[in-house]
Design a protein that fits this description.
This protein is α/β, with parallel strands linked by helices. The protein has 2 domains: 11-147, NAD(P)-binding Rossmann-like Domain (Rossmann fold, 3-Layer(aba) Sandwich); 180-410 and 432-473, Dihydrodipicolinate Reductase, domain 2. Helix content is 35%, strand content 19%. It is built from 15 helices and 15 strands. The strands form 2 sheets. The protein has a 9-stranded mixed sheet, with helices on both faces. A 6-stranded parallel sheet has the order 3-2-1-4-5-6, sandwiched between helices. Bound molecules: nicotinamide-adenine-dinucleotide.
């Protein structure tokens, strides 16, 4: 695979929360990979801004240690790493006070592209925006990258949007959902709109159903008390799974342009039907398999927060009338796996013997592990024995098919940060999209709260509660196995 270097203007990337986990684990290792592959201009700088008392030399040491810990050895040549670290600066800034802002102002360069990454809790967004504006270091050409969670409900998301809008234009705001930075997710658009094969079949006439799964093996662990205030619906469905649903279900945009794509995604969210209680299964992991129970992790013996959710959704428009979308996500499950599965209908009439077997095509888009796609097609079982049918996968694992080592597939964060520098908002959520997603989510949560529904318990290391399997079985369908 030929790696194409797209020129990028010199930039200052200022990371608020530059000493936090997200910066150390994801953002800076990702940027280093871009630097090592020659995609960061020599004049580019990264400025860590956080509360800790430290100087630039100390910050470089900290990031050196993180990169060595989180990137495999073959991805970090010492020479490159040394040069990358020279690009780093650090400034101690109090987001809610006055300390450090004058130092930051001295440090940032007026003539280059500036991106401010808000890698801090949302309670600090307003304070930082106000101070950037007040210190005159965030003019109309600057970009703001905003992390999740973007609100807790519609009201808080609207308040956040209003706060940001007081200081910046929508065109400057990059609300990040790292699922959109995944290679496969973008490939979903390439497959749908870059081929004639799929789009004519991409509708209720030919698609039986779609399933979207994001399964994690980890528990909520030490984040339990924080997670308990959100749950799987807010933490995963409202944002990540909703974005995957939108890209799967949207109409073809007129061009690959930020507003054209986001307009189409917004229409999908607005077309979602309310979800009746019988189409929602909430679960909570019990103790087992050496794992403490969710309630113990959450430090809340009465907790009714879900660590698992499965739902059946309907999109009320011409394209999808009658084709359900099943979503599921959870912690402490059997395997770590994220995929979108498009299950086509069976051929309307079989010309083969009744016992020959009858299959439907299935397109699986894997986000992790082994980013790639496979398409199941029906062929004749080889050898004697008459005409018997079998399903075989046409497999396209990106790392194999493109002759690339897995390292050449960019990580979601590195791609998205570079998109910010280029000024491309296509893979970022617009304010109205986020609000529409909350407007759909809120009544669902209000519904189960008012009913006092308790989540069903499930065993750690399982596929979730039995009721989630029934959600599909009662429709004569089944989830794909959660195989690694
Ligand atoms: P963290 O707690 O590890 O780091 C917080 C950072 O904010 C630190 O650098 C700290 O110095 C800085 N900070 C806190 N208060 C400050 C203040 N008053 N002034 C200046 N700096 C201050 O958090 P994190 O895990 O890096 O996450 C950051 C944000 O990103 C959070 O909003 C989180 O929800 C979101 N997020 C994190 C992840 C992840 O994988 N860690 C994933 C998605 C989203």
């Amino acid at each position: 695979m030929v790696s194409r270097v797209i020129p990028v203007d010199p930039f200052d990337l200022i990371i608020f929360g530059g000493t936090g986990d997200l910066a150390r684990l994801k953002i800076l290792p990702g940027l280093f990979r871009r630097f090592a592959s020659g995609q960061m201009p020599p004049e580019a700088r990264v400025i860590g801004a956080a509360r800790s008392e430290m100087d630039s030399a100390g910050y470089r040491e900290m990031i050196h240690a993180s990169i060595c810990e989180f990137l495999p050895e073959k991805q970090r040549r010492e020479g490159d790493l040394g040069k990358f670290l020279e690009r780093l600066e650090y400034v101690r800034v109090d987001a809610t006070g006055t300390d450090g802002w004058a130092d930051l102002k001295t440090l940032v360069r007026s003539e280059v592209t500036k991106a401010y990454y808000f890698s801090v809790g949302p309670s600090l967004f307003g304070a930082i925006a106000e101070r950037l504006h007040g210190n005159g270091i965030a003019g109309p050409k600057c970009r703001m990258v905003v992390e999740k969670p973007f609100g807790h409900d519609l009201g808080s998301a609207q308040a956040l949007n209003e706060t940001l809008a007081r200081f910046f234009d929508e065109a400057q705001i990059y609300r990040i959902d790292h699922y959109l930075g995944k290679e496969t997710v973008q490939n979903l658009m390439a497959v749908r709109f870059g081929n004639v094969l799929f789009e004519p079949l991409w509708n209720a006439q030919f698609i039986d159903h779609v399933q979207i799964t994001v399964a994690e093996t980890v528990s909520v662990g030490g984040r339990g008390a924080y997670y308990d205030k959100s749950g799987a619906m807010r933490d995963m469905i409202q944002n990540h799974l909703m974005q995957l649903l939108c890209l799967t279900a949207m109409e073809p945009p007129s061009k690959f342009d930020p507003d054209a794509v986001r307009d189409e995604k917004l229409k999908v969210i607005r077309a979602l039907d309310p979800v009746p209680a019988e189409n929602i299964v909430r679960g909570q992991y019990a103790a087992g398999d050496g794992v403490a129970s969710y309630r113990e992790h959450a430090e809340n013996p009465e907790s009714r927060t879900e660590s698992f959710i499965a739902m059946k959704l309907h999109i009320a428009n011409w394209r999808w009338n009658g084709t359900p979308f099943y979503l599921r996500t959870g912690k402490c499950l059997k395997n770590r796996l994220s995929e979108i599965v498009v299950r086509f209908k069976e051929p309307p009439h079989s010309i083969f013997e009744a016992d020959a077997g009858r299959n439907a095509n299935e397109l699986a888009i894997r986000l992790q592990p082994n980013e790639g796609m496979d398409l199941n097609v029906t062929i004749k079982e080889p050898g004697p024995g008459g005409m018997r049918l079998m399903e075989v996968p046409l497999d396209m694992t990106f790392a194999d098919a493109l002759g690339a080592s897995g390292d050449a597939v960019p990580d979601a964060y590195e791609r998205l940060v570079m998109d910010v520098i280029r000024g491309d908002q296509t893979l970022f959520m617009r304010g109205d999209e986020v609000e529409a997603a909350w407007a759909w989510t809120d009544p669902i949560i209000e519904g189960w709260t008012a009913r006092g529904d308790a989540p069903k318990l499930y065993e750690p290391g399982s596929v979730g509660p039995e009721e989630a399997l029934m959600l599909m079985h009662r429709d004569g369908r089944r989830w794909r196995d959660l195989k690694a």
